[in-house]
Specification:
The protein has 133 residues and is α/β, with parallel strands linked by helices. It has helices at 14-25, 43-50, 66-70, 80-85, 110-132; strands at residues 2-8, 29-35, 74-77, 94-97.
């Protein structure tokens, strides 16, 4: 079974959404996410994922597990901070970087902030679907 690991700074938004989509679109893979820090699960990420029928409400913000990292087939970083701080991996681990904006940093009205969360969610879904093809 192939294994994928999604990493971002706090494992609160982007990597959690990616884990949710990967569980749906990559059913033959072991899927996990983590952060270089733990910031807790962002309720707005939970809400926008529920809007597309994926429940991540039971996910928890986790720190990088070096054993899982080093045994993964693919590691995807979703922010520059995670890319820069991610520990070294063996040459057998493919690494990809998806430089996506942090929706938790969005400014504006509630509606504008939620739109940023939806936009990032939709881009993550597009990229995870592409991995599945």
């Amino acid at each position: 079974m192939r294994q994928i690991y999604f990493l971002c700074t706090g494992n609160s938004c982007r990597s959690q959404m990616a884990e949710g989509f990967a569980a749906k679109y990559l059913p033959d893979w072991r899927v996990a996410s983590a952060g270089v820090e733990t910031h807790g699960l962002n309720p707005k990420a939970v809400a926008v994922m529920a809007g597309v029928g994926i429940d991540i409400s039971q996910h928890q913000s986790k720190l990088i597990d070096l054993d899982y990292l080093n045994s993964s087939d693919l590691v995807v970083t979703l922010c520059g901070d995670a890319r820069d701080k991610c520990p070294m991996t063996p040459p057998t681990v493919e690494r990809r970087h998806w430089p996506l904006p942090d929706p938790a940093q969005a400014q504006g009205t509630d509606a504008e902030i939620m739109q940023v969360f939806r936009d990032v969610r939709d881009e993550i879904e597009r990229r995870v679907k592409a991995l599945a093809e």
